[in-house]
C-alpha cells in the first residue's frame, strides 16, 4: 500500500487514477492530498470525492502539504505549468522529502523541461489514455535521471491498477501518445460515423449507436483474444462479390486507411512541436 500521494490538479485523468487506487485499497483516502486552482473548483469537486481525501485550493496556505508528499502526481493544464513550477520552487526549503518523485501526465512536456522546472524533484513522464476510466487504459512511462528501482516499482504500481503499463524511451512517447492517447477520439469518430450510416440505412439512432459500439468492441476483443492479424480478419469477413468487399472498395477509394495513418503521424508531430 502507498504511504501517501500528492496530486497537483484533480481533473478527469487524475481522478481516473486516484479513485481506482482507493477502490482497490492500494491507498486510503486519508493519505491523498490534492490541490486545484480555485476555491470554486474545490466546492464543485468535493461532493464527488471519496470521504477522507483532502482537497485544497492553491490559494490556501495549507496546500503546501501536497508538496510534502514523497510521490506527487502532476496533472494540471499545460498553461498552468509555469505557475505551478514557481510555486514548487518557492516551497523547496520546506520540503520534508529530500527529492520528491514527480510523475507528470502533461502531454508534450519533455523530461528535460520538467527537470529544469522542478530541479529538486526526480521526474517521470507518463502518457495515459482515457480508457483508464474503465480500467482498460494504456500507459507509457519514461524515466528521468536518478530514478531508482524502488521508485520505478511505486510508479508502475500506480498505473497497473487502471491500465497496461509499458516502459518506453522518451523518443517513443510522441508516437505512443498519437496512437493511444489521441486514438480514442479517432475511434469515437468512427463509431459515430458508423452509427450515422446505420441511421441513413433505416435504423434508429439509439440502436445504431449501440450496434456500432458493440461491433467495434467485439472486433477488438476478437483480434486480441484469438491473436488474429487485422488483415486476416478482414479476409474472413469479406467474401467474393459480397457486401463487405464492396464497402471496403469504397473505403479504399475514399482514402480511409491513409487518413488514419496521417492522423497518427500528424498527432505525433504536434506532440513534438509542443515539446
What does this structure look like?
With 275 residues, the chain is an alpha/beta fold. Helix content is 48%, strand content 15%. It has an eight-stranded mixed beta sheet with strand order 3-2-1-4-5-6-7-8, with helices on both faces. Strand 1, helix 1 and strand 2 (32-36) form a beta-alpha-beta unit.
Task: Quickly describe the structure.
The protein has 275 residues and is an alpha/beta fold.
Which helices and strands occur, and which strands form pairs?
Elements: E1 5-8, H1 12-23, E2 32-36, H2 39-45, E3 54-57, E4 71-74, H3 81-90, E5 101-104, H4 111-117, E6 122-128, E7 137-143, H5 149-159, E8 163-167, H6 173-181, H7 183-200, H8 205-225, H9 230-237, H10 243-253, H11 256-274
Parallel strand pairs: 1-2, 1-4, 2-3, 4-5, 5-6, 7-8
Antiparallel strand pairs: 6-7
Distance between the termini: 34 Å
Report helical residue fraction. 40-55%
Q: What is the 3D shape?
A: elongated
Number of strands: 8
Radius of gyration equals: 22 Å
Q: What is the residue-mean pLDDT, rounded to a whole number? A: 93
Structural class, from helix and strand content?
alpha/beta
The percentage of residues in β strands lies in: 5-15%
| Strand and helix order | EHEHEEHEHEEHEHHHHHH
**Biggest sheet strand line-up:** 3-2-1-4-5-6-7-8
- Spans of at least 5 consecutive residues whose pLDDT stays below 50 are none
| Biggest sheet record | 8 strands, mixed
Count of DSSP-assigned helices: 11
Amino acid at each position: 500500500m502507498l504511504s501517501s500521494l500528492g496530486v497537483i490538479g484533480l481533473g478527469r485523468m487524475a481522478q481516473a487514477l486516484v479513485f481506482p487506487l482507493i477502490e482497490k485499497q492500494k491507498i486510503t483516502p486519508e493519505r491523498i492530498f490534492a490541490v486545484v486552482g480555485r476555491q470554486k473548483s474545490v466546492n464543485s469537486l468535493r461532493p464527488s470525492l471519496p470521504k477522507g481525501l483532502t482537497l485544497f485550493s492553491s490559494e490556501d496556505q495549507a496546500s503546501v502539504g501536497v508538496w510534502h508528499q514523497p510521490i506527487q502526481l502532476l496533472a494540471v493544464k499545460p498553461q498552468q505549468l509555469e505557475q505551478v513550477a514557481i510555486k514548487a520552487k518557492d516551497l523547496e526549503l520546506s520540503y520534508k522529502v529530500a527529492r520528491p518523485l514527480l510523475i507528470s501526465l502533461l502531454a508534450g512536456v519533455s523530461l528535460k523541461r520538467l527537470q529544469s522546472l522542478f530541479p529538486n524533484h526526480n521526474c517521470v513522464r507518463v502518457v495515459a489514455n482515457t480508457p483508464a476510466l474503465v480500467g482498460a487504459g494504456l500507459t507509457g512511462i519514461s524515466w528521468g535521471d536518478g530514478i531508482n528501482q524502488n521508485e520505478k516499482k511505486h510508479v508502475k504500481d500506480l498505473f497497473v491498477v487502471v491500465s497496461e503499463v509499458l516502459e518506453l524511451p522518451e523518443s517513443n512517447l510522441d508516437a505512443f501518445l498519437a496512437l493511444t492517447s489521441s486514438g480514442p477520439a479517432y475511434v469515437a469518430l468512427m463509431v459515430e460515423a458508423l452509427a450515422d450510416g446505420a441511421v441513413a440505412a433505416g435504423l434508429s439512432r439509439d440502436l445504431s449507436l449501440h450496434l456500432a459500439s458493440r461491433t467495434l468492441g467485439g472486433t477488438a476483443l476478437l483480434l486480441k483474444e484469438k491473436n488474429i492479424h487485422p488483415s486476416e480478419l478482414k479476409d474472413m469477413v469479406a467474401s467474393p462479390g459480397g457486401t463487405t468487399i464492396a464497402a471496403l472498395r469504397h473505403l479504399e477509394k475514399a482514402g480511409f486507411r491513409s487518413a488514419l495513418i496521417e492522423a497518427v503521424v500528424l498527432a505525433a508531430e504536434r506532440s513534438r512541436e509542443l515539446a
